[in-house]
Write a sequence for this structure.
């Protein structure tokens, strides 16, 4: 439970919203005839309509790579030169994907910004030709239409999208630290208006088809079909094509106008946008907001604003030029490398490396209906898992059930679910006080209080009622799984599943395998986690596993910094300006002072001096005064229901004053304070890899960013070492070591990397 | 989808083609008549969507049908009737035979026409009186009365009881009302069958009623809450404080649900998607609708719709026949815009059933009782089946699922059936069901069957018209289907009839009707 609420803002990094990079290999082939050798695109002519079907081989998604690009040019040239063809339909043959974006490998293979700029300019030219086509082109969109895919679609004369849940339109480039580089920054504002275009490009949010229709992003919707003469997905694509063909004909015959009637609000907005003063105000407002939110750590959003502005104020030639140049520059930044790395890592952590378990988990049981237990129940029931939620008292159970219901109901309010779906999902949940039905459970996840003897007690109780194949998973943040499993009759079935709070917002799941845990048990846990929509890292058992263990030394440093007289507000601002989504002091409040103390004490015992730093006494005194953090209403800050701006808890001052330690001037600059925190974190993370707790650096980065809020702009501790330089980090550690001692001693692996500059965690 | 708009019905605008009684080929005539353009904005289909409907169809029927002289088709039917059946009768040992003595219905009228000032129980009473008159059954012999209805008039929620009392049945005869969307009166009949089979009753009247000219429109929930609270408020102060919370938006009314509750999709919309899933064109749908209207017109002209009883509407002329039968031309129908999926859908007002007022009732008895009372029954009610499936994508496929099951249960095959009476909610729905029944792929992948059941031959299918043309008062259609099957078997000499229908909620029903030997 080490995580914090505010880290939820990271959830923007949802895989589905981001560009896919399947990385197909370019294939060399000789072209005897252009028609015969195409691998990504085929086209046929129906009447006088060319139907161009995109289907990249050996991949679940279509991505805009060089090969597809050149085939597309070929096909379009044929379409334009043919007398028989009067219009065209552009469609994907893949269910669930129109075009998921540009091929990331193509971008990462570039070594200079000029190369990237050139790629952008080629795409710009092509899409401009599409836009100016005298033969109308209809984009028929089923499934994800993201990044370059959206840019292509908005170059077409008309767009028809299926009203499917999988159909999402968006410009997620910003999440990868780049910008829409194929004319998107220029066309999108014209199509949906400047404010909406900014919203799409700066947040990267995906837009569902019905919303896209309202915004004017698509012109028509097609309802997905059910079973008929063919499987639904297949027939839906066929139907989409049929409908698109009738519209293509209509456009060619001028029976349908591609212009859309604008609503009153839209007309007013576009009128307002025609006034230079209003435009300037909007740029200013958006820029201010972006600066405030990114704290200058992410260059892409500001460049997007700049490029859009250039296009509107200086004409599209200047806009396109600026777009391609900025695109090139951004692709070379550390930030974009870090973000792309995270994106790839996230994709990797959404796969089950352990294969399919022998028995699929259908019946889940959760012990403890607290925040965590109910949260786990919530992400399970809406995926169709039958879930028992058990607690000891009716009041606690009721609170948990209400939490699940409210979570689902919030989705209804956001229109992500219908009230009927909510009710159907909620009926997957059974709340109870006894062990009835546990004999049919395939997996039990316990989320009871973090107390070893209590965990032993429930484990024994549960094992008396569950079937042999049932997995027992413990949602603990620090207790070693092997110790929990010590009382088990079947330790191979015991595993750790460390969820992060709030469970429905935090994407990470840390799965902890003890020595005795069987591979099938792991496979089962990973499968359930994936079903729950989690990004999963699998780590070895040990005190604090990976995430808690990395956080503990940093927390220890937090306390020391506070003791040295840096106020919680100042500390928060130092950490957030470094890129942490939540300030360090706030993080302690969110985690809970008692939990922090509990963890610090336990891990301190195991790891000794390396985890020392601040005095535990600070936490102990806070606990004795009832300052447990957000949950008790007071910690470093005072939390009041409905009050947004939290105030400092002035009672803390006396505690800190009584335990004050003198700051060391050499290592107490703002920057040093930031690096003292970060280097301890990074050093411990690298040590986890060195000791084999972590299997791969990727999992380390994903765990740190998605679970602990490590700055995404740095890409995680390992990416940070690669990009920042191991030597520089070791230098920093040595400097702090001189001041504080062993807590800052760099680990061997880190020193290895420092001594051989070619050694990288990511090659 | 405002009520006022939907209640205006396309059919009203359509030219009446009844002018030339000598023309049997009335469905050809419209081609030669000058026809006023239909008003596309007045669409009743949207309202239709409320409740439920279903329909079947195939592809090339129109051509085949128009080529064949009708006289010849009756020979064909006679020929099939003598064909050997899988079973001589469906009578089962130790189970009571249940017969339908006769059944009647009021003329089915477009909503908003002659019945518009009535209440549902008035219509139901008319059907009951008609049945009493037709069968001369002594009122005190009737053990029980069951009616089906869909949109309930809140004042008469047990409409069966109100109608029975008004029709002069004994106040000692209990009555209840059932609802199961478009198969409500089917449910009423099968409930009667169960009561008789289990020996609880001997004589039951089952029926159905729907009055779409008037539907309950409620105050908003907020307004209702305030009114209820007001009625409980004791002091002036309490009342004033409640009234002070009043907001103008409290006054916005709540219409009866137009969409399926579980999916929030209107039925017409689902039908359009269904037609697309089965790749059924607009033309095929229009052709099927035209067939329905043409056949209904012919049946009406030839006096085959003998279940219709005249109804003297208070203050108005006596209504003697259905008024929704309006054969038009394909050209005219092609001019209509899609009613649900705009602008490219295929379901229009012309190929959908329309909002209808009407009531029906049948007299169901144990066979021995009927014989003891001196009746000559029309048909046995045999095996029946209710099914349900996905209310989103298979909302209207009930007949496809129910047909093979009920045939298996009865030990019959498609070839044994002489008269098919399927409820026609939309042309696209009927055609989709026919295609689904004719698809091995569909049977294997969605119905868990080894092979398709086969599509009913059109020469035996709804040949006296169907819900598209006769009308579809939701709660009353089931009895019409059973009586149409029974009367057709009597008239044509067939032995087995199959009734099937779809209903909102993704439900469906089928029943075997066996002709009573002459």
């Amino acid at each position: 439970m080490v995580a914090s609420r505010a880290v939820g803002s990271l959830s923007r990094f949802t895989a589905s919203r981001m560009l896919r990079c399947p990385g197909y290999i370019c294939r060399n082939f000789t072209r005897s005839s252009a028609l015969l050798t195409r691998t990504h695109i085929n086209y046929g002519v129906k009447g006088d309509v060319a139907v161009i079907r995109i289907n990249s081989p050996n991949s679940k998604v279509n991505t805009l790579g060089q090969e597809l690009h050149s085939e597309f040019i070929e096909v379009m040239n044929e379409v334009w030169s043919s007398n028989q063809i009067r219009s065209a339909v552009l469609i994907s043959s893949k269910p669930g994907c129109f075009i998921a974006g540009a091929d990331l490998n193509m971008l990462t293979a570039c070594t200079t910004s000029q190369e990237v700029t050139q790629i952008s300019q080629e795409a710009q030219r092509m899409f401009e030709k599409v836009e100016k086509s005298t033969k109308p082109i209809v984009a028929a969109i089923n499934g994800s239409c993201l990044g370059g895919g959206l840019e292509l679609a908005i170059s077409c004369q008309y767009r028809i999208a299926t009203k499917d849940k999988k159909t999402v339109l968006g410009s997620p480039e910003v999440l990868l630290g780049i910008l829409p580089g194929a004319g998107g920054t220029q066309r999108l504002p014209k199509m949906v208006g400047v404010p909406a275009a900014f919203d799409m490009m700066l947040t990267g949010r995906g837009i569902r088809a019905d919303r896209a229709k309202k915004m004017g992003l698509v012109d028509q919707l097609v309802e997905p079909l059910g079973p008929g003469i063919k499987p639904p997905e297949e027939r839906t694509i066929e139907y989409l094509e049929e409908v698109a063909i009738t519209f293509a004909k209509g456009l060619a015959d001028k029976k349908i106008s591609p212009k859309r009637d604008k609503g009153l609000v839209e007309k007013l907005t576009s009128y307002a946008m025609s006034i230079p003063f209003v435009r300037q105000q909007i740029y200013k407002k958006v820029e201010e907001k972006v600066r405030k939110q990114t704290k200058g750590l992410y260059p892409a959003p500001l460049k997007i604003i700049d490029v859009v502005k250039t296009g509107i104020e200086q004409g599209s030639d200047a806009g396109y030029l600026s777009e391609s140049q900025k695109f090139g520059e951004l692709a070379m930044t550390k930030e974009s490398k870090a973000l792309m790395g995270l994106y790839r890592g996230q994709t990797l952590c959404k796969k089950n490396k352990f294969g399919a378990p022998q028995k699929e988990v259908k019946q889940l049981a959760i012990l403890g209906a607290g925040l965590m237990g109910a949260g786990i129940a919530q992400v399970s029931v809406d995926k169709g898992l039958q879930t028992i939620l058990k607690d000891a008292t009716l009041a606690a159970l009721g609170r948990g059930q209400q939490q699940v219901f409210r979570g689902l109901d919030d989705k209804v309010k956001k229109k992500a679910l219908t009230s009927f779906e909510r009710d159907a999902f909620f009926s997957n949940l059974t709340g109870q006080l006894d062990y009835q039905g546990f004999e049919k459970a395939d997996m039990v996840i316990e989320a009871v209080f973090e107390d070893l003897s209590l965990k032993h007690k429930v484990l024994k109780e549960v094992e008396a009622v569950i079937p042999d194949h049932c997995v027992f998973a413990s949602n603990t943040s620090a207790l070693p799984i092997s110790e929990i499993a010590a009382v088990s009759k079947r330790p191979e079935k015991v595993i750790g599943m460390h969820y992060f709070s709030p469970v429905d917002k935090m994407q990470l799941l840390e799965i902890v395998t003890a020595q005795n845990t069987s591979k099938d048990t792991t496979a089962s846990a990973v499968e359930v986690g994936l079903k729950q929509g989690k990004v999963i890292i699998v780590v070895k058992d040990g005190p604090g596993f990976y995430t808690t263990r990395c956080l503990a030394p940093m927390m220890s440093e937090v306390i020391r910094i506070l003791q040295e007289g840096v106020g919680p507000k100042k500390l928060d601002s130092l950490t957030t300006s470094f890129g942490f989504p939540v300030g360090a002091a706030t993080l302690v409040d969110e985690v809970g002072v008692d939990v922090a103390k509990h963890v610090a004490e336990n891990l301190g015992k195991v790891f000794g001096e390396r985890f020392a730093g601040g005095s535990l006494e600070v936490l102990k005194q806070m606990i004795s005064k009832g300052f447990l953090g957000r949950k008790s209403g007071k910690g470093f800050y005072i939390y009041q229901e409905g009050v947004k701006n939290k105030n400092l808890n002035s009672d803390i001052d006396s505690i800190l004053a009584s335990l004050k330690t003198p700051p060391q001037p050499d290592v107490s600059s703002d920057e040093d304070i930031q690096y003292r925190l970060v280097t301890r974190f990074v050093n411990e993370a690298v040590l986890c890899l060195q000791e084999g707790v972590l299997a791969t650096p990727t999992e380390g980065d994903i765990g740190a960013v998605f679970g602990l809020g490590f700055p995404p702009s740095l890409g995680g501790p390992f990416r940070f070492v690669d990009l920042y330089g191991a030597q520089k980090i070791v230098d920093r550690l040595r400097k702090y070591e001189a001041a504080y001692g062993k807590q800052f001693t760099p680990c061997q692996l880190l020193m290895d990397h420092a001594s051989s500059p070619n050694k990288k965690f990511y090659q | 989808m405002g009520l006022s708009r939907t209640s205006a019905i396309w059919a009203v605008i359509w030219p009446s083609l009844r002018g030339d009684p000598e023309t049997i080929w009335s469905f050809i005539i419209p081609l030669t008549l000058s026809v006023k353009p239909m008003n596309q904005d007045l669409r009743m289909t949207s309202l239709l969507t409320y409740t439920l409907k279903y329909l079947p169809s195939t592809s090339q029927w129109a051509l085949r049908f128009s080529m064949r002289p009708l006289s010849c088709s009756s020979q064909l039917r006679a020929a099939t009737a003598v064909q050997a059946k899988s079973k001589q009768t469906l009578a089962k040992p130790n189970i009571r035979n249940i017969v339908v003595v006769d059944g009647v219905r009021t003329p089915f009228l477009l909503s908003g026409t002659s019945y518009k000032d009535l209440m549902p129980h008035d219509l139901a009473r008319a059907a009951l009186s008609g049945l009493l008159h037709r069968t001369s059954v002594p009122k005190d012999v009737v053990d029980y009365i069951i009616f089906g209805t869909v949109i309930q008039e809140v004042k008469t929620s047990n409409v069966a009881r109100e109608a029975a009392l008004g029709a002069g049945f004994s106040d000692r005869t209990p009555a209840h009302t059932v609802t199961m969307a478009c198969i409500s009166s089917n449910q009423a009949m099968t409930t009667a069958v169960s009561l008789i089979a289990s020996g609880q009753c001997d004589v039951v009247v089952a029926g159905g009623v729907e009055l779409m000219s008037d539907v309950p429109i409620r105050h908003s929930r907020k307004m209702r809450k305030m009114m209820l609270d007001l009625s409980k408020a004791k002091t002036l102060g309490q009342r004033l404080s409640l009234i002070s919370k009043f907001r103008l938006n409290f006054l916005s009314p709540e219409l009866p649900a137009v969409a399926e509750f579980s999916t929030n999709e209107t039925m017409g919309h689902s039908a359009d998607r269904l037609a697309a899933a089965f790749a059924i064109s607009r033309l095929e749908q229009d052709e099927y609708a035209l067939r329905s209207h043409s056949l209904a017109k012919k049946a009406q002209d030839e006096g085959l719709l003998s279940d219709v009883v005249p109804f003297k509407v208070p203050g108005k002329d006596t209504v003697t026949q259905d008024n929704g039968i309006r054969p038009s031309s394909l050209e005219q129908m092609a001019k209509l815009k899609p009613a649900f999926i705009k602008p490219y859908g295929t379901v229009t007002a012309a190929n959908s059933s329309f909002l209808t007022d009407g009531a029906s009732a049948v007299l169901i008895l144990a066979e021995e009782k009927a014989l003891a009372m001196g009746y000559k029954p029309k048909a046995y009610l045999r095996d029946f089946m209710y099914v349900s499936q996905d209310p989103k994508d298979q909302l209207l496929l009930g007949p496809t699922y129910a047909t093979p099951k009920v045939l298996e249960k009865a030990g019959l095959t498609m070839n044994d059936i002489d008269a098919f009476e399927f409820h026609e909610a939309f042309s696209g729905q009927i055609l989709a069901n026919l295609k689904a029944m004719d698809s091995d792929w569909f049977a294997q992948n969605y119905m868990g069957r080894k092979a398709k059941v086969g599509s009913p031959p059109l020469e035996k299918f709804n040949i006296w018209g169907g819900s598209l043309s006769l009308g579809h008062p939701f709660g009353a259609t089931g009895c019409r289907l059973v009586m149409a099957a029974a009367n057709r078997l009597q008239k044509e000499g067939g032995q087995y009839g199959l009734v099937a229908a779809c209903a909102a909620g993704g439900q469906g029903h089928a029943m075997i009707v066996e002709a009573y030997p002459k």
Notes: The first helix of chain B runs from residue 3 to 7. The first strand of chain B starts at residue 98 and ends at 105. Chain B has 20 helices and twelve strands. Chain B touches chain A through 26 residues (CB under 8 Å).
